[in-house]
Amino acid sequence: MAACLRVCLQSTLKILNSVMGLLGMAMIMYSLWMIRACLQQIGELSRGFSESSSSPSWFIFAFLGLGIFLCVLTCSGHIAAETINNHCLSCYAATLIFLLILEAAITADIFLNRNWEEAFPHDPTGRFNQFKEFVRSNSGLCKWIGLLVVAVQALSILLSMVLRALGPDQGEYDESDDDSLPARLPLLKNQAHITHAADRKFLGNNDSRIVQIDDTVSR
Q: Where does the sequence pass through the membrane (predicted)?
């Protein structure tokens, strides 16, 4: 029963990880598209104007870095779910908790601070403003996506803690010990055979010496 539960939890954690991985890959693809668009603008416009308004901005690289981070986190989550290693699961859960706290802090700052946009540097490419307009025009869809991401992260933390409490399957270690036992038996048999042969040889030598002593005495 515990083995079936462990397998189900592993599969569920991998599925939840895949959702975050898909989100990370989507962010990477969108960032690469923005970089490509900026490079095309740099090639079309003059050099002085492109340096001031068309060079890739902080927003593009931040978006790209976040996507790469989510992909790396997904890979580590798959490794932790497959191995059920306590250290891997703890590091994975701690990273997700830190990410949730960071997301909550950013969300609270956006809702409570009306001038939150001033905290970010100026984006010469205008991609940040385009992203804001997209979020505002599709606020319902973005809210559902945000709730889905938060739910996936929270469930991943819960499942990782449950897997850590269950621990790895001990049956695998028992089977490995049973498999290694027959391999040791021939060595024990050979050692016993060698010891028995040595004892017989020693006894044979003693018997021959006793016979020689008896012959000498009789003479």
A: 15-35, 56-80, 92-112, 144-166
